[in-house]
């Protein structure tokens, strides 16, 4: 299952990376003679209400969606592991404070805050790194900042249980310093569930990006992402179902394959596996 | 007589118990309650007692894996309790520990070479990679494993082999004292014998001293020179292995020994049966901890006064008002 998933995900990634080099219809070429056209040889995925080729838009949009998904996951995991590890290894007031912050983030109403943050900082970042890059950084950071809490809690729970294990005690008895205990003994044994959580985060980030695009606060409307395509298509579901279908299928496949890969990775990284 | 290698005096360890939401510390578990003993160079002191009597806590306190509440620990002339982090690391080159559960005591994500060689890296005992590997192979062969086991992972080994890996890890720093925390309790009887023999061979070869914690009296008798019997955080009797088994003095020791099965169905003997359970260590009985179950207790003396551990014959220490 995991191997097949890797194959499909690689195919998807390769398609969005190299697809635009082969399928050379520009994403913004408007052709009113072919509005809402169903899939055909000219337009394999059909066209949208402006007659723009959906395959081209899908391929381009996939780049952004996948990049956002993976980058946001990386942010969420790095922050989550850091907070969880510090909290789990230093019991007492530091632990209490960090978990308090985690609970605080979990309790925040995320969507309104997301909108506020993006509204406040979008222009500043746009001027700084350009419209696309600015929005990308902002969205990745914001999604990452709202997804790290489950990871932190997972890592903390793992740390609390692992730090009492005899092999950790043995390493302490050998004179290992705390950083060494964490890096060599506790962290490697706590990453299994984190990897699985991380794969779910990729999926959540792709969907969160769609939500933002839908609310008009994601990427500018002329930049297609999978989420954007889905939401643009929603008004035409009855007459042009293909519009939503392919973007939806792409998100579905990506999320599903990533989850399977996560499962497979966890098994593969477990040295106790039966050979 | 020369200074003993390890000298422990009045060692206590209390684990605080947290109460409800608003009450702070409500009570504490008296795991170790004023323990005195010593271990000489190259000798084995057996520490026996039933579950929860504080044997393992005592062992861990010596290494300061658990911070003792009070008492004194002197190792090789050094005051263990006052050592700072760096000196404590140096101390841990001299004292090592072997654990009970060979499945939990090896990091499943490190190969055997990395596990055994970890101390070499921590204490920078080898200079080059080649030296490191030679030393690890040497250690593995010392405990009866092969060089090609180095690159394998713990899950590929049986319980006995895993315990050997644990022993090799402890030997890497060339310690003077090894705390054996029930090292054979989790193993099959045939494997137990192998590991015990290995420990004895190593003792002879390297002049190791053992603090051998166990609940299996037969094993302890076999390996120990002297034995201390613990009950509810206190040592109730301490004597040479032979002496203790031949003429136990404390009523608790008598009961323990009479519970050891004899491999001859024809032999009949007086069985000392204890009634009741071990009292809760959160609120141990006043006076002598054993008075609630003791067949010879006399009140109110045993209830009000804790008997000190005193020498009743040469090298035979008992904590009882009447023996």
What does this structure look like?
The complex is a heterodimer of chains A (275) and B (323). The longest helix of chain A has 37 residues, at 178-214. Chain A has 275 residues and is mainly alpha-helical. Chain A is elongated and about 75 Å long. Chain A is built from 10 helices and no strands. With 323 residues, chain B is of the alpha/beta class. Chain B has 10 helices and 12 strands. In chain B, the strands form 2 sheets. Chain B has an 8-stranded mixed β-sheet with strand order 6-7-8-3-9-10-12-11, sandwiched between helices. A 4-stranded antiparallel β-sheet of chain B has the order 2-1-4-5. In chain B, helix 3 packs across helix 4 and helix 3 runs parallel beside helix 5. The radius of gyration of chain B is 21 Å and the shape is globular. In chain B, 41% of the residues are buried. The mean pLDDT of chain B is 87. The chains are: A mainly alpha (275), B alpha/beta (323). At the A-B interface, helix 7 and helix 8 of A face helix 2, strand 6 and helix 3 of B.
Give the structure's gist in a few sentences.
Chain A has 275 residues and is an all-alpha fold.
Biggest sheet of chain B, in brief?
8 strands, mixed
Distance between the termini of chain B: 27 Å
N- and C-termini, Cα separation of chain A: 17 Å
Strand content of chain A: under 5%
The average pLDDT value of chain B, as a whole number, equals 87
Rg of chain A computed from alpha carbons, rounded to a whole number of angstroms: 22 Å
Strand content of chain B: 15-25%
Structural class of chain B: alpha/beta
Strand order of the largest sheet of chain B: 6-7-8-3-9-10-12-11
Mean pLDDT of chain A: 81
- Number of E-state strands of chain A: 0
- Helix percent of chain A reads over 70%
Largest sheet of chain A: none
Chain pair with largest interface: A-B, 20 and 32 residues
Our Rg estimate of chain B from Cα atoms comes to 21 Å
Number of helical segments with 4 or more residues of chain B: 10
């Amino acid at each position: 299952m995991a191997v097949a998933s890797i194959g499909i995900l690689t195919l998807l990634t390769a398609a969005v990376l190299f697809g635009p080099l082969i399928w050379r219809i520009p994403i913004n070429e408007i052709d009113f003679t072919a509005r809402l056209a169903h899939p055909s040889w000219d337009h394999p995925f059909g066209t949208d209400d402006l007659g723009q080729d959906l395959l081209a838009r899908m391929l381009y949009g996939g780049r952004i969606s996948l990049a956002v998904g993976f980058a946001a996951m990386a942010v969420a995991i790095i922050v989550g592991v850091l907070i969880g590890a510090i909290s789990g290894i230093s019991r007492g007031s530091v632990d209490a404070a960090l978990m308090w912050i985690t609970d605080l983030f979990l309790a925040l109403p995320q969507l309104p805050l997301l909108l506020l943050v993006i509204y406040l900082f979008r222009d500043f970042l746009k001027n700084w790194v350009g419209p696309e890059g600015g929005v990308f950084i902002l969205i990745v950071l914001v999604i990452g900042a709202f997804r790290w809490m489950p990871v932190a809690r997972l890592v903390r729970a793992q740390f609390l249980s692992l730090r009492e294990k005899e092999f950790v005690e043995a390493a302490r008895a050998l004179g290992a310093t705390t950083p060494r205990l964490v890096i060599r003994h506790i962290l490697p044994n706590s990453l299994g569930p984190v990897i699985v959580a991380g794969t779910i985060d990729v999926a959540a980030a792709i969907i969160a990006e769609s939500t933002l695009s839908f609310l008009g606060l994601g990427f500018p409307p002329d930049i297609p992402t999978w989420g954007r395509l889905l939401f643009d298509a929603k008004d035409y579901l009855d007459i042009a179902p293909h519009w939503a279908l392919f973007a939806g299928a792409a998100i579905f496949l990506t999320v599903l394959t990533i989850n399977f890969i996560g499962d497979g990775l966890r098994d593969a990284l477990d040295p106790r596996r039966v050979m | 007589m020369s200074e003993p290698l390890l000298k422990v005096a009045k060692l206590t360890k209390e684990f605080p118990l947290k109460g409800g939401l608003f009450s702070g510390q409500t009570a504490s578990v008296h795991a170790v309650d004023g323990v005195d003993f010593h271990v000489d160079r190259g000798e084995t002191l057996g520490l026996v007692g039933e579950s929860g009597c504080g044997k393992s806590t005592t062992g861990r306190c010596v290494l300061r894996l658990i911070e003792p509440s009070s008492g004194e620990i002197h190792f090789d002339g050094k005051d263990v309790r006052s050592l700072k982090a760096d000196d404590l690391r140096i101390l841990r080159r001299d004292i090592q520990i072997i654990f009970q559960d060979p499945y939990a005591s090896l990091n499943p994500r490190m190969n055997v070479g990395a596990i055994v060689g970890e101390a070499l890296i921590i204490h920078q005992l080898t200079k080059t990679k080649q030296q490191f590997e030679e030393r690890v192979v040497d250690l593995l062969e010392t405990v009866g494993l092969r060089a090609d086991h180095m690159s394998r992972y713990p899950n590929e080994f049986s319980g006995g082999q895993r315990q050997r890996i644990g022993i090799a890890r402890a030997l890497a720093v060339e310690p003077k004292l090894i705390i054996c925390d029930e090292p054979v309790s989790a193993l099959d009887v045939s494997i137990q014998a192998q590991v015990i023999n290995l420990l004895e061979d190593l003792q002879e070869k390297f002049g190791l001293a053992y603090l051998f914690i166990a609940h299996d009296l037969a094993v302890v008798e076999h390996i120990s020179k002297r034995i201390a019997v613990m009950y509810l955080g206190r040592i109730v009797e301490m004597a040479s292995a032979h002496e203790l088994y031949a003429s136990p003095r404390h009523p608790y020791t008598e009961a323990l020994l009479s519970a050891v099965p004899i491999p001859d169905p024809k032999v009949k003997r007086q069985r000392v049966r204890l009634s009741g359970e071990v009292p809760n260590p959160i609120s141990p009985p006043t006076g002598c901890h054993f008075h609630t179950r003791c067949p010879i207790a006399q009140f109110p003396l045993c209830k009000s006064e804790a008997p000190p551990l005193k020498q009743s014959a040469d090298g035979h220490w008992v904590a009882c008002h009447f023996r």
